[in-house]
Amino acid sequence: MKQTKQLTAIIEREGDGYVSLCPELDIASQGSTIEEARDNLVEALELFFETAAAAEIQERLHTEVFVTRLEVSVG
């Protein structure tokens, strides 16, 4: 039976497409739409979990990730 894991996806526009990032594992992907970038990130993450050794997963996995917005002075 397969397990599931909740991870964070940050998706931002880059040029004509989108880049998706999972900060817990520092794995990224891209796509021409938000949905494609998300789906490609899911595929990249699943492939990582299928092929990575348990020690590599443990070493790379950040269990606490905080996403927030900041206000900074410019100019």
Structure in words:
The structure is a single chain. The protein has 75 residues and is α+β, with helices and mostly antiparallel strands. It has a single domain, classed as Double Stranded RNA Binding Domain. It contains 2 helices and 3 strands, in the order βββαα. It has a 3-stranded antiparallel beta sheet, with helices on one face. It is globular. The chain starts with 9 loop residues before the first strand and ends in a 15-residue tail after the last helix. The mean pLDDT is 96.
Summarize the structure.
The protein has 75 residues and is an alpha+beta fold. Helix content is 33%, strand content 21%.
- What form results from the Cα inertia axes? globular
Number of DSSP strand runs: 3
Number of domains: 1
Oligomer: single chain
CATH topology call: Double Stranded RNA Binding Domain
Structural class: alpha+beta
Q: Give the name of the CATH architecture.
A: 2-Layer Sandwich
Strand content: 15-25%
